[in-house]
Give the backbone structure.
Amino acid sequence: MNRERAETFLRLMVEAELRGPALSPLPAPPSADAAFLTRSTALTRAAWALTAVGALDPEIAEAVMADAELALAARYRPEPPEAGVIGPAGAPLAVPAFPPVPAVPRGRFTSARLTVRPGWRPPPGPDEPPPPATSTAVQGGPERYVPVGRMILFHDETVSGEVDLMSYAHTAAGARLIAIWQARDPLGPRRRGLPPVEAFTVTDDRGQRYELVFATKGRSESSCDLALRPDPPADIRWLDITAPGEQAVRVDLERPAEVPAPRVSDVRHSVGEHLLNRIAERVLAMAPDFPAQLAAMTAVPVAGLTAGLGVTIAALQAAEVLSPLSPVPAQLAALCASLRVPGHGITAAPAAELPEPWLSLLSHYHRRKPDIAPARDGFAAAAAALPELDGIRLVLLGLHNCDGSTWVNALAHGHLARRQHGLHGLDMAFPLSIWIRDDAGRWHVARPASWFDENGEAVVTLRLTPPLTRSAASIEVLATGQSAEVRATVPLSWGYPP
């Protein structure tokens, strides 16, 4: 990584930006923010990319951008008339008001960095031994993850429905059941109420009773965490959960997860390639939002995401975090060509081959007929703890389908920043690329929809694109960081018949 060249590249871009407007003035008086909207896209994307990979300090990027924007705003200020010039009918010309200099938005790059493991360095060469593995797992408490797959019916005078338990997790932060719920209000069939979990009776195999605390932080609208209070012993064997007026439901906590050991392997992706791959995943995840364009094989309108990719690539190469021989820019060009996305600015010729997950999603999008098995509502019990990657250890704790979307419920050990989105709409604080392949061979990209980080343990919800059908009996999870990747096969136990 060459930080000096990174800063030099950005400052040379500023010089070129300042020369351009002087040679081609705007035909009409611009608005006060014209410099931001018409002249700084490439410059902003380059600054964002360099701060995202850590080649440029956010403070330096902010200072360079502030100087550039103030200079551009000054270029567009109208000149006052010369003294003594008389207008029509002998009236002196009114001096036009200068448009206010736009205030420079602060903090644009302070949260843009990829979360890089402390002491990260580029992958070792062929004669260099790999760096030793590190671990930041939560210490000082139990860790237990159990698939559940049980349904609890409830009803009272105002609401009725069910709570579907996907998994049980007990960590240093406490014990919880990860669940989804459906509630129906008899006074209005379209209204939705919360399950009355405070009225449930919970007893373990030793006769100890617990309260359930309902929480939705970091979960999708239809899912929740039910924390047990007080914290139970680490080795309880089962829980009996009883809703008012219903039979007790026994939750077996000795059920084996039956997850094969994950496979860890090295990858040779540079930090620049990792960033470009994340951008490609974002493009692939956005494409289904435009079904008419996909069906008609016309341009998918994601230009706001792909604009400036050529400058982004040049900036990464200048900072020496992306090799000129890297195949990823050509793959990105081929992806944009497949979706007919113009204006990306990538100079590399489109690659003849694409990574298998990308190709799987493109094939899915370009089909002219609907899926044979739609993603109906339901839930699947699952529990799988993945090895640590880039300072994050992800634990999958079930998934569910709701309203045509598939959500993966998870925990993440390690610190995740609360502010998540970068310039390209990327979740920059989440350092991993997550793909899931179903047992029919179809790939699905998983992106963080939300998370809530508290004391180094985050409640995370991932959204799958495209959705997963309930015919899948197992999934293969591919989690990739900057120096290693993990593959894990996770069996699924659906709570409803497929």
